[in-house]
Amino acid sequence: MADTVVGANPDPHVSGEDPNRRDFIHIAAGAAAVGAVAALAWPLVDQMNPSGDTLALASIEFDLTKVAAGQQVVVKWRGKPLFVRNRTPQQIAAAIKDDSAPMPDPEPDEARHKPGKPEWLVLVGTCTHLGCVPTFGGGDYGGWFCPCHGSHYDTSGRIRKGPAPKNLVVPEYAFVSDTKVKIG
Q: What pTM does this model have?
């Protein structure tokens, strides 16, 4: 007589140990894990793509006839404010006179505008300290004043006093005509 083990069933279909079913469960669990990893990784990959509004504003053209002498216009460019200022002869003379004044980030006025167009100043309108938006015509030097932390900029956008380490940034721009400028 053969020894039999009580409770042992030689038929794998009856005991629930079907190898085809077990393989399916492993494949399904692996596919679910891959799907979960892809679902978690997609937002990380997608956030590295530039946003649609940034691409649309990579470069803009601006009509300079909208800016009166001594005034500025704020334009949105790449999600930031952009200052387009039409300086008066007095403001230009004051900026040139201050070229040799002590500054945290020394730069001559002529390096901050296009040759032959000293009246037009184009600047990114965010303070170089913490990114606040300075107010026009304020401060001790007649340029811009950042009320958040007290940075003073002159009529050329150079930092003269306060915590900001650098001058207001001059973006890439070119004059398309006497009345139009292309920024970016």
A: 0.66
